[in-house]
DNA sequence: GGTTGACTTGGAGTTAACTCCAAGAGGTAC
DNA sequence: GTACCTCTTGGAGTTAACTCCAAGTCAACC
């Protein structure tokens, strides 16, 4: 289907990162052609996309390795996978809430800076006051 | 005002982390008493709280060092500080959006797992079907 | 048939952000 | 006055997550 160079371009992950992900088990092993070169299938690409997304949302590599490993063990692990996702979803939720609080705080600070700057400008315009 | 042990307990940051933050300039230098021991003022504590919050929202240490350094240079840097905050606020916003998308995706996945599990249970209950 | 370029591997190196350690000093408790 | 505890410093070590490197293979073009 496609080479590491193509997958790398498509998902904006370095070839090294892709090889690393495969090495540590973050994505299932990719098949090689007769001369030993990686040949990513559609499914491989879906994994790459999924993992990239999960990683950029901040899920630890270790947890994702666990997820992939469960996945490869088949249907018996459906419950465990669901629980893992729920746990991570909850943590994600907490982090989002924390970040939103921080956003508000930064917005307040920015507003206050804005007013300080405005006040300073006025003083400049009407120095007699 | 208070010792490193107290600040450490209050903000749940290790003493090592507090010393590290001070060492690299993440918080302004804390005064020492006559025997060389850190004596955190109220303002020091506010800095610690602020930095802890910023860090847990994911702002890089490097950026925060820059902010503290600007702060210490006085009023002339108000504009630069505001710009720095705006830039970081925007990045934070992007990260939050990305994480929210990921949350939805995880919720979908969890729902699908739930249905799989439900279906499996039904099959168990009525094996004749 | 030799050179080029993209790929392979295992392993070493890097970066950010802590975290730990050794050696030593000050204050208090017996 | 000595044992103990908490603190100090500078510097080394750790962890996660890549990122880079050297040595080698293979197909393709000239």
Structural class of chain A: mainly alpha
Per CATH, the architecture of the domain at 4-72 in chain A is: Orthogonal Bundle
Helix content of chain A: over 70%
Q: Radius of gyration of chain A in whole Å, from Cα?
A: 24 Å
Topology pattern of chain A, helix = H, strand = E: HHHHH
Major β-sheet annotation of chain A: none
- How much β-strand is present in the residues of chain A? under 5%
Give the distance, in angstroms, between the N- and C-terminal Cα atoms of chain A: 74 Å
Shape of chain A: elongated
Low confidence ranges of chain A: none
Oligomer: homodimer
CATH topology of the domain at 4-72 in chain A: Multidrug-efflux Transporter Regulator, Chain: A, Domain 2
By CATH reckoning, the class of the domain at 4-72 in chain A would read Mainly Alpha
- Mean pLDDT value of chain A: 93
Chains forming the largest contact: A-B, 32 and 32 residues
**Total number of β-strand segments of chain A?**
0
Number of helical elements of chain A: 5
How would you concisely characterize the structure shown here?
The structure is a homodimer of 129-residue chains. By secondary structure, the first copy, chain A, is mainly α.
Describe the fold and architecture.
The structure is a homodimer. Chain A has 5 helices and no strands. With about 130 residues, chain A is an all-alpha fold. The interface of A and B includes residues 96, 114 and 116 of A. The first copy, chain A, binds a DNA duplex (30 and 30 nucleotides) through α2.
């Amino acid at each position: 289907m496609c080479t590491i160079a193509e997958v790398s371009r498509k998902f904006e992950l370095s070839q090294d990162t892709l090889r690393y992900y495969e090495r540590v088990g973050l994505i299932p092993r990719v098949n090689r052609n007769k001369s030993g070169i990686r040949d990513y299938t559609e499914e491989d690409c879906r994994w790459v996309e999924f993992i990239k997304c999960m990683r950029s949302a901040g899920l630890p590599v270790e947890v994702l390795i666990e997820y992939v490993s469960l996945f490869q063990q088949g249907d018996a692990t459906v419950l465990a996978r669901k629980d893992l996702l729920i746990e991570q979803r909850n943590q994600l939720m907490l982090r989002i809430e924390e970040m939103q609080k921080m956003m508000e705080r930064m917005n307040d600070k920015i507003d206050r800076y804005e007013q300080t700057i405005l006040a300073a400008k006025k003083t400049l315009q009407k120095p007699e006051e």
